[in-house]
Amino acid sequence: MPFSKVKGWKWESYWITGGIFSWLIVPPLAAWLTLPGFSEIIATTDTSVLLFTYAMGLLWGIGGLTYGLGVRYLGMSLGNSVVLGFCSAFGALLPSLYYNINPQEGKTSFNQLLSTTGGQLVLLGVLVCLVGIFISGRAGMMKEKELTEDKKKETVKEFNLNKGLLVAIISGILSACFNFGIEAGKPMAETAVSMNLNPLFQNNVTYVVLLWGGLTTNLLWCLMLNAKNKSFGDYTNPNNPLFKNYLFSALAGTTWFLQFFFYGMGESKLGNGASSWILHMAFIILVSNLWGIALKEWKGTSNKTIRTITIGIITIIASVIIVGIGNSLN
Questions:
Q1: Of 273, 289, 298, whose CA–CA distance to 92 is shortest?
Q2: Does the global pTM surpass 0.90?
Q3: Any idea which of 97-106, 242-251, 299-308 has the lowest mean pLDDT?
Q4: Which DSSP category does 6 fall into?
Q5: Do 330 and 125 contact (CB within 8 A), yes or no?
Q6: What angle do CA 117, 181, 329 make, to 5 degrees?
């Protein structure tokens, strides 16, 4: 929402300005405040762990870029439902599939999920979440049929269902690499715990390396767009409200990072990547849909369409409850 307050800048200009804060400035600051000596942990970590974590950040960065396009073409409500729904499902399953191939002590493999009641409920929750995505997507198709082009543009200026669904699916799958990156960087988190640092903040050291990957992808793309659109002047043009633009971009970037700051705290307590990830994503979907309603993105649609998107949201919430019950049984 703070990005909506930025005036006179191209998308790439405010996106990377916010990104500098969310991926480069705030993560090491958070690690410095909560994990003294975090830089030594990174310096002594095996290179393969650092590279794998960084690579997951690169892939997640691509997902983050296409996320912006998904919301741009589908709107806050439908865009987030599709993108984050796929992200939650794949993010919940990828680590367990990896540990099926490379078993590690204390890590939950896919076979272990299948063989326990709690694990089966977690997988059921993932399935229910995908059903919720389908229902939400169905509501989007109904919306497209019911509204004229002018009406669509009133609520979502560049509404395009086909293009939006394509980039949203790609974004959701690649964005799931963030959770895999957290798992890949666990040796750094475990080192922090072994140094008697507060285990509640153990993931903050992993974020530093993981978000370097995200910064790389986004920085290269935004610089290319700056060159293509001749928008380098945005950063210094006195005709733009520069102070406010930098302030709101910084606020957006900092707020973005805080979601994972608090997620890392919760994940350290839950200890189950599948459960914590889908809980996190589902609540984002819920909040984004509430914002979509507040912004009147569904204005002018039939009661049937409103009921359909409502059922989709309720289904996604149900998936959260199922996963929570499954996690409590493990």
A1: 273
A2: no
A3: 97-106
A4: -
A5: no
A6: 15
